[in-house]
Amino acid sequence: MDADGASSSGGERDRDQGKGKGRESSVVVDSGRRRSSCGYCSSSSSSSISHGLWAYSLTANDYQDLLDRGWRRSGCYVYKPEMDKTCCPQYTIRLKASNFTPSKEQERVLKKMQRYLDGALDTKFDKSSDQSKSNLLCEELNKSSGSRILNNTNQTNPLSVTVPLQETENQDKFMSFLSEKIDTAVNTFFKERGLPLTGQNPKSVVKNVKPQMKRKLKDIITKEEDLIYTCNVSFQIAAYIKNMDSKIENLDSVSPSIIAEELVRVISSENISGFIIKACSGHLNFYSGAKEETVMVEKPAQTQQTGKKNYESTPQKRRRLVIRMKRSQFDPDEYALYEKYQTLVHQDKRVSKDSYIRFLVDTPIPFIEPDGSSRVPPCGFGSFHQQYLVDGRIIAVGVVDILPKCLSSKYLFWDPDYAFLSLGKFTALKEIQWVREMQAHCPSLEYYYLGYYIHSCNKMRYKAAYRPSELLCPLRFEWVPYDVAKPLLDRSKYAILSDFKTTENTNLLPTEKPGTSSTNDMHHHSEVHNENAGCENGEEETAEDENFMHDEDSDVEQDEEASSMDMDDDEDDEDDDQIGADLLADHAQSIGDVVLDVHNTRIKYKDLQKRFVIRKNFLSELEKQLYRYIEVVGKDLSSRIVYSLG
């Protein structure tokens, strides 16, 4: 995969804090708790609860550590679900690429793409136009026989290989198509004669003419014609008319032969290319307009002796797939594809260039160039758009972050015209393959992060199909095998996954359900509330999910929606914001090490009052914010990331 050298975008939020020295360190503004409606359970209330940060800059290392504490980004907005409170807990899910074993279904996805690239998989049946469908179906029928005519009749001792035209995997589709055409002609026939159209009208059935039947009909089939299909609906129509009320006006005494001729007249106007339609003794017969095609292949021995060319069938056209890694920047072709995807797949009528840039182009992660060492992959660290092009046309774009330990899949959008290729699954498999290949250059880059796994939402469970995966414990931030975590999640949508170590072969320890809290242990409540985690096609993503997956679509879109919500008033959550005295003492040391950005001046909190005159009530509120910030970010990160006061 090629790495494009285009410049990375940080969006309009690149203020002074995000430039110069700010670009050498992580700088965030604390947005606090956010509430919004939930796109997973379709809750009308503000039941989705998360903690958010606006990031002017996030180093690759710091964002990696945030991922490992359940955070995730949408553009420059970084968020983390409050797992014990939100309606649909979101667990970070990852996969060690070297351990990945594709399922049979995933292998079929790869094989289907390969067949498409080899020209062996044709999708022209997806066209909506009846006329183009007719022409393309006939064309497909002729192509799929794999036969060709080679005009080399002078070659000595040619070996003739015949392939009957009707032996094709698309026969059933084509016969169904012909039946629809005949039924339409039957309706026209009834209307022209003033006959009523009811649910009892005869329906046509097209049959393939077997070789033994052709032998019986050899006297009426010329050498220039090959009878492929036949239909006897004319006999059914004649019997139906005879049984009708004789008082019906314009009722002619017609025979199957006359009816067949009338139907041929109507059907012939449709111009089904590649076939000759004739009425024969009341039957509708479909003939190929040419002889059986023959492939002329020289005998190998003869070719060696004479030195003449080996005549073979012309190979079907191959397609070229290119996967290109580009630094995150606005690309009009990508945006056009995104607009098409959102409109047709998600029926989103509010797509705009600005929202697209905020959501998928803006990134707080500064680009780190490769240095030739094994610590940085050849593409560098940062945010990228991974383009999938077939013969130069972009069919899918995966938005990813390349970090010290992983490729983090953020979003996938794809061309709806290529939905038959299961692009959400295909791109996820290619991203896993990319990680495996990169390990030879950067051994630390060994994981594939799929984003958030939501056990309570069936459409987001597909991510567990990439095995063997792990889920992040929302309390201890330990990775737990999915197969171990699943029984816990089957019992409760919020679970402390690392409890499996002490509860093996026993019942699940009591845990708080989302939306509830303990009233007996304030310290335990605060710990569980703050030490939570989350995770994410295109899939598309899938992704897709199927997309969101690799249908990743639903949660990322909901996250974008959440990012525009207003922060809750502290008064609305007075009880939740209350910090116990024990917890305050516990973090007294940590809060002093938090680096603040005050009017572009960097200073530790413990030195704040030495440099500035601070009102007591402001200091008290700031301390509460910082205590919560340390809880959700962690002590180590809170001492590294610059906390901007705006």
Strand order of the largest sheet: 1-13-14-15-16-17-6-18-19
How much helix is in the residues? 25-40%
Terminal-residue CA separation: 40 Å
**How many beta-strand runs?**
22
How many strands, what sense, and barrel or not for the largest sheet?
A: 9 strands, mixed
Rg measurement, Å: 33 Å
Percentage of residues in strands: 15-25%
Shape: elongated
Q: Could you say which structural class the secondary elements and strand pairing correspond to?
A: alpha+beta
Average pLDDT level:
75
Q: Unreliable runs, pLDDT <50, ≥5 residues? A: 2-23, 124-169, 290-314, 505-580
Please tally the helical runs, counting DSSP H or I stretches of 4 or more residues: 21
EC number: 2.3.2.8
Family: Belongs to the R-transferase family.
Domain N-end aminoacyl transferase N-terminal: 36-108
Pfam families: ATE_C (PF04377), ATE_N (PF04376)
Characterize the structure shown.
The model is unreliable at 2-23, 124-169, 290-314 and 505-580 (pLDDT under 50). The chain has a nine-stranded mixed beta sheet with strand order 1-13-14-15-16-17-6-18-19, sandwiched between helices. With 646 residues, the chain is α+β, with helices and mostly antiparallel strands. Helices cover 33% and strands 20% of the residues.
Write the layout of secondary structure elements.
Layout: E1 2-4, E2 27-38, E3 43-57, H1 60-67, E4 72-74, E5 77-81, E6 91-96, H2 104-118, H3 130-144, E7 159-162, H4 171-192, E8 207-208, H5 211-216, E9 226-231, H6 233-242, H7 256-268, E10 275-280, E11 283-288, E12 294-297, H8 300-306, E13 321-327, H9 332-345, H10 353-361, E14 382-390, E15 393-402, E16 406-414, H11 423-438, E17 447-453, E18 469-472, E19 479-481, H12 482-491, H13 500-503, H14 522-530, H15 553-562, H16 574-577, H17 581-586, H18 588-592, E20 595-598, E21 601-604, H19 608-611, H20 616-633, H21 635-640, E22 642-644
Parallel strand pairs: 1-13, 2-22, 16-17, 20-22
Antiparallel strand pairs: 2-3, 3-5, 4-5, 6-17, 6-18, 7-12, 8-9, 9-11, 10-11, 13-14, 14-15, 15-16, 18-19, 20-21
Helix pairs in contact: 3-4, 4-7, 6-7
